[in-house]
Amino acid sequence: MTRSRAFAQVDVFTAVPYKGNPVAVVLDGEGLSESEMQAFANWTNLSETTFVLPPTDPAADYRLRIFTPKDELPFAGHPTLGSAHAVVEAGLAAPRGGRLVQQCAVGLVELAVERDTLSFRLPRYALEPVNDPEATAWLGEGVAVRGVPQAVNVGPTWLIAELRDMGALETLAHDPARLTRFYEATGMTGATIFAVSGDQVMVRSFAPGDGIPEDPVCGSGNAAVAAYRLALGQIGAGDCYVASQGRQLGRDGKVAIRIDGADIHVGGACVTCIKGVVSL
């Protein structure tokens, strides 16, 4: 039996509405089956849709389930930030000392909340070199990669590769079908590609196998890039930078990365664009 449930759509990694990455947030997910959640996520046709539930861990302020149009994710970045923003705005949880704790499939995720800016501490990450030439063949002929691509597990697993030229990343004419074949063979979420020029960092994320040809602004993808850069010595403890993502899709996302020892913090601004109810 359907009923009205509080709903919000939040734009993440932007303070300007419609310039970031939207996440659909069902603020009362209790009583919904997994198939009902998946069907609604497929209907919203956003890269992620989340469902807020009461926590089962006493250390958490709330529990979150995260779905793409095709699958449930153990963790994802922009849904974590956007959902936390919606939870606080709806009065379902209040930060204690500027902190929230989210429970999700990957475990407990710590968030810092400061007005409309939120950040999370990446709960875990692991890297593994990928020497298969198919890992980057989908980028197209003549696109030069720096170093060895890595499979970076941050909950979802992203193939991370650094391009030598930022212009090549901006104008990338890649082969989505070839990437999908690689994704299906390896079980990775997709590929996040980045380039660095001076103090500028640009990122693009592709997950066609999950129904996301290109993610406008990807929190977990940026977290994986930070893990890659930290492991390779490009950045170190105490460093911070802001990555840009989404220009190719008409967005202007800004993702703030901060390194605290071995911990990676990912943050950005959030703004609510839609409030209302849904029948589920």
Using the coordinates above, name the CATH class of the largest domain: Alpha Beta
Largest sheet: 8 strands, mixed, barrel
Compute the number of structural domains: 2
Number of continuous helical runs = 6
Series of secondary-structure elements, N-terminal to C-terminal: EEHEEEHEEEEHEEHHEEEHEEE
The name of the CATH superfamily of the largest domain reads Diaminopimelate Epimerase, Chain A, domain 1
Low-confidence stretches: none
Rg, rounded, reads: 18 Å
Secondary structure category: alpha+beta
Q: Got a strand count?
A: 17
- Overall pLDDT: 95
Helical coverage, percent range: 10-25%
Shape: globular
The portion of residues forming beta strands comes to 35-45%
CATH topology-level fold name of the largest domain: Diaminopimelate Epimerase, Chain A, domain 1
Distance between the termini: 8 Å
Which strands sit side by side, in order, in the main sheet? 1-2-3-4-6-7-8-17
* CATH architectural group of the largest domain: Roll
Characteristic terms for this protein:
6 helices; 17 strands; eight-stranded mixed beta barrel; 280 residues; 2 domains; Diaminopimelate Epimerase, Chain A, domain 1; single chain; alpha+beta
